[in-house]
Write a structure and sequence with these properties.
This protein has strands spanning about 10-20, 25-35, 40, 45, 60, 65-75, 75, 80, 90-100, 105-110, 120-125, 135-140. The chain has a single domain (about 10-125), classed as Immunoglobulin-like. Strands 2, 5, 6, 10, 11 and 12 form a 6-stranded antiparallel β-sheet that branches. Strands 1, 3, 4 and 9 form a 4-stranded antiparallel β-sheet that branches. The chain has a two-stranded antiparallel sheet with strand order 7-8. It contains no helices and 12 strands. The protein is an all-beta fold.
């Protein structure tokens, strides 16, 4: 087995994370992604205000582990009350992504249908996870 060839990153771009609520009114989102930190570098993310509140405790980038978590809520921190839920297709966040090798690499959501401790979309009415799928991406150098 050969080791990946390290080189100065040639690919530098952005990956946008989209949410499609279908027919639901979404009050909360958890997007959990995994990637190979030997092949891809993600140094942070930009909030795109799909929902108004991104709690600091629910958002984490751990490059060494190849782990990214973004959480957002339909919540107003000033009035301490719910806001208008997300409906339709919205951008949750933008990730700055760089390839670190000459090889393609995947970024995938941690997702199991029906699980509530991974990527999920919480419906306002039923208060349940209504996510039906999560599709990752491939980063090419």
């Amino acid at each position: 087995m050969s080791q990946p060839t390290r080189k100065k990153p040639q690919y530098g771009g952005y990956l946008d994370i989209y949410i499609d609520s279908g027919s639901y009114d979404i009050m909360g989102v958890d997007a959990i992604l995994r990637y190979d930190p030997q092949r891809i570098m993600i140094t942070g993310y930009q909030y795109l205000k799909a929902l108004p509140y991104y709690p600091r405790m629910g958002n984490l980038v751990n490059h060494e582990a190849g782990y990214l978590q973004i959480s957002a809520l339909a919540y107003d921190t000033k009035t301490h009350s719910p806001t208008t839920p997300l409906r339709g297709i919205k951008r949750l966040a933008r990730l700055p992504v760089k390839a670190l090798t000459n090889d393609s690499a995947e970024i995938n959501f941690t997702f199991t249908l029906g699980s509530t401790n991974d990527t999920n979309l919480v419906d306002l009415v039923s208060q349940t996870d209504v996510a039906s799928s999560a599709t990752g991406a491939v980063v090419n150098p």
